[in-house]
Amino acid sequence: MVRNSKVLSKNEKMKKLFEAKNEDVEFSAVEADRDDIEALDRAQAADRRQLHEIIEEEE
């Protein structure tokens, strides 16, 4: 894996975060099981934590 040596600015981090949230992923609540719902909850919590960290860095 090749890593980018450039340090991203806060705006670039925010842009990457919002771009990642717009991935084309299908989710069917009808076909979801308990593990799927738990994974969705964890992903949303991680997004909130990441966004909170980025906002704190800007202040």
Automatic annotation (TrEMBL):
InterPro entries assigned: YfhD-like
Organism domain of life: Bacteria
Protein's UniProt name: YfhD family protein
Record lineage: Bacteria, Bacillati, Bacillota, Bacilli, Bacillales
